Amino acid sequence: MAKQEDIFKKVISHAKEYGYVFQSSEIYDGLSAVYDYGQNGVELKKNIREYWWKAMVQLNDNIVGLDAAIFMHPTTWKASGHVDAFNDPLIDNKDSKKRYRADVLVEDYVAKIENKIEKEVKKAQKRFGDNFNKTQFLATNQRVVDYQEQVTSILKRLGQSLEKEDLVDVKKLIEELDIACPMSGSKNWTDVKQFNLMFGTKLGANAETAMDLYLRPETAQGIFVNFLNVQKTGRMKIPFGIAQTGKAFRNEIVARQFIFRMREFEQMEMQFFIQPGTQKEWYEKWKENRMKWHLSLGMGEDNYRFHDHEKLAHYADAAADIEFRFPFGFKELEGIHSRTDFDLGSHEEFSGKKLQYFDPELNKNYVPYVLETSIGLDRMFLAVFSNSLQEEELENNTTRTVLKLPAVLAPTKAAILPLVKKDGLPDIAHGIIEDLKWDFNVTYDEKDAVGRRYRRQDANGTPFCITVDHQTKEDNTVTIRHRDSMEQERVAIADLKAIISKAVDMRTWLLKMK
């Protein structure tokens, strides 16, 4: 656990040092669980968003985009169920005075059991080598089987208790598991209580007549209330989807783990409208599709897993998370939910307006079912960043810190480095930048020895370093260095664009989904 915490601290420190993420309002001692994206962070975030948008919207002829307002009529949140049911179960420790999400305390306890399973697997792999059969080991090793049964039993009970809103049993579960406060080690807990997560605000100049509003806690409702607008103006035929990226706001009382859980965050959501009765088929298709998207980035198949929900939201008939191995363990990265006809049906009821689709093939009207994919952009940022940050031992007994970002997402694609700051080399380097900057985000660096500049660009995640030297003046060639392998090759300046394009082109990366 201590090692995981140390790794996570390095992630947070590196993110600040290299201009990726800053604490919001830091000069005023910051604002809890609110962060700003720096000059490199904003580029990485933009690239992740574009990678999602191209895969979800541009490459699907039956999915279109939307940008709905953050402010919505307050009845929206009554219809969606957020006013009555958008709560977190919170518990306080009487001795440390710290507040926690009760379900997260239990999930963290389960994560420790899962870590024990992983340790058993690693020991067995070491013992049996190439003969090791992981599937067979997980199914037959009694200690591992017992651990897995314990995990299943705990999560099932937690899910059932939360679904029934039996908060007394949630506390009882925490006590039975002997869970202590992470800060103080105390087991002196209060009762579990529900806390609504929505931020309230007002619309209007006069305090007496101002309308009570909420900052949206999710982006999905903007899609649902615009269902007919998009369907009719786009002449969309079911099945079709509406995608949206944008800010959402939740009054997280127990915000933690850097940008994993924030009060202001960004979502990338797609609502797919389908014929009732086809939801199981589409649920499986979108689970497969979304996992392929994640795996296309090459961050390791072992770092992902599906987690089926024991407790279903009030609107769902099936739900699964794609979980990612963060430095603090496997946690939710994306959700795939079969939402039935709850959303459109509820808005139809509360608004008094028909939100139905006339299906010419069936010759009848119906309220479509919805299949949702929803991913947190900030969590995806953290997944990419934390997975990419590595310490490597080199052959000369030195180490280097390298940020092995997927090249397609890297903020800066290439750094142009003149070997020395004279003899016309900077002029040639600037000429290369003038040519490449139309297609790629590139940078110029002339400070320090070239080896130190390489290390700086490695730590910044730049896939290529292009060095201009005296030979360049003779034959118009440069040395291009690859970040991940550190290999160097001599290439013509005229070939640089093609070399970089091959490595960073979205088409190349997204074709891995096929």
From TrEMBL:
Q: Name one GO biological process term.
A: diadenosine tetraphosphate biosynthetic process
What do the Gene Ontology cellular component annotations say?
cytoplasm; extracellular exosome; microvesicle
Q: Does the keyword ATP-binding apply?
A: yes
Q: Which UniProt keywords apply?
A: Aminoacyl-tRNA synthetase, ATP-binding, Cytoplasm, Ligase, Nucleotide-binding, Protein biosynthesis
Reactions listed under catalytic activity = tRNA(Gly) + glycine + ATP = glycyl-tRNA(Gly) + AMP + diphosphate
Start and end residues of each Aminoacyl-transfer RNA synthetases class-II family profile domain: 177-418
InterPro entries (UniProt xref): aa-tRNA-synt_IIb, aa-tRNA-synth_II, aa-tRNA-synth_II/BPL/LPL, Anticodon-bd, Anticodon-bd_dom_sf, Gly-tRNA_synthase/POLG2, Gly_tRNA_ligase_bac, GlyRS-like_core
UniProt lists the family membership as follows: Belongs to the class-II aminoacyl-tRNA synthetase family.
Q: By what name is this protein known?
A: Glycine--tRNA ligase
Q: Which source organism does the UniProt entry give?
A: Maribacter vaceletii
